[in-house]
């Protein structure tokens, strides 16, 4: 389908995934597009992953290994990105895997449409590779091109998760190098998705779910909601500010409405009677309110956002109930 004269660098952060890493790497080695630079970033784990990475590097010259002190997912991705020498770059999480023709189809489509980023749907699967039907009903990405503003707008749609993840994309390296992931933060993709799309003049979608997203019982994504997840508010607040400053006022206000709903919804998910939890929640509500009032001074806000904000301040428990039972 596509000539293999241009190198794709694939960055794989590796940490405590010895049960999954071989499946991930094998899916890369079996790609029909073989001109790959596979960068395994050992993030300082104390299991067998460092040794497994080194063993793979001995077997295939396309594999490079970076051993580093533990710094988290963002730090590992950034290290791999800095070491990449390809014209294109992709990220893949080390407990996931991809179809054999993933990069062949992505680079072909990206080049055919002269796009800066290609993004595909993904399929949620179990540890054993079985499709999780209820999570794969509303794949959002279509076979078409999207403007930067369209892609950013999709980050607050009902199926936004297909647009926010860093690993179901292929980037031109010049785009990838402009954005670093925030070290020490969870929800790192929420902090960066809009920045990637804003740097791109054109994004091309691929409806086929080329990426296999493995949902593990003990993964970050399946753990019970905790106060640490509230950093998501900071991520979306940053996104709102960015939109308002870059002429995307309508999109920014959509995110503001989204954030008011989110803060309403999570109130009852937290142990709000715990003093530290309540203080942290209140801190993020104040962060939201500061941005809300600064936008309200310059723009007319819709009734839903104003009503949700009023309830957040005066009746947070009722607001949470309404969000979960009525506005879901």
Automatic annotation (TrEMBL):
InterPro entries (UniProt xref): Glyco_trans_2-like (IPR001173), Nucleotide-diphossugar_trans (IPR029044)
Keyword annotations: Glycosyltransferase, Transferase
Signal peptide range: none
Keyword Glycosyltransferase: yes
The name this protein goes by in its record: Glycosyltransferase
Gene Ontology molecular function: any one: glycosyltransferase activity
Organism per entry: Roseburia inulinivorans
SUPFAM superfamilies: Nucleotide-diphospho-sugar transferases
Domain Glycosyltransferase 2-like: 9-148
Entry keyword annotation includes Lyase: no
UniProt xrefs under PANTHER family: GLYCOSYLTRANSFERASE, GLYCOSYLTRANSFERASE EPSH-RELATED
């Amino acid at each position: 389908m596509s000539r293999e004269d241009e190198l794709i660098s694939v960055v794989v952060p590796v940490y405590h995934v010895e049960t999954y890493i071989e499946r991930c790497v094998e899916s890369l080695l079996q790609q029909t597009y073989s001109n790959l630079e596979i960068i395994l970033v050992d993030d300082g784990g104390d299991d067998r992953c460092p040794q497994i990475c080194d063993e793979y590097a001995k077997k295939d010259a396309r594999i490079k290994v970076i051993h580093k002190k533990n710094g988290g997912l963002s730090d590992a991705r950034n290290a791999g990105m800095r070491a990449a020498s390809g014209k294109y770059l992709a990220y893949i999480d080390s407990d996931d895997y991809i179809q054999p023709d993933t990069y062949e189809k992505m680079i072909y489509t990206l080049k055919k449409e002269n796009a800066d980023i290609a993004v595909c749907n993904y399929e949620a699967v179990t540890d054993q590779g079985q499709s999780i039907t209820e999570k794969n009903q509303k794949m959002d990405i279509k076979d078409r091109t999207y403007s930067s503003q369209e892609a950013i707008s999709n980050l607050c749609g009902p199926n936004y998760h297909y647009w926010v993840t860093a690993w179901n994309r292929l980037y031109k390296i010049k785009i990838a190098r402009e954005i670093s992931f925030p070290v020490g933060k969870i929800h790192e993709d929420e902090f960066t998705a809009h920045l990637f799309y804003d740097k791109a003049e054109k994004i091309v979608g691929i409806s086929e779910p080329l990426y296999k997203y493995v949902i593990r019982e003990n993964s970050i994504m399946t753990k019970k909601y905790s106060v640490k997840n509230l950093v998501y508010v900071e991520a979306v607040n940053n996104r709102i500010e960015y939109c308002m400053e870059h002429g995307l006022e309508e999109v920014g206000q959509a995110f503001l409405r989204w954030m008011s709903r989110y803060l309403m919804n999570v109130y009852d998910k937290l142990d709000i009677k715990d003093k530290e939890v309540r203080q942290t929640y209140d801190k993020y509500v104040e962060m939201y309110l500061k941005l809300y009032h600064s936008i309200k001074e310059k723009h007319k806000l819709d009734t839903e956002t104003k009503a949700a904000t009023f309830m957040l301040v005066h009746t947070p428990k009722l607001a949470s109930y309404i969000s979960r039972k009525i506005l879901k």
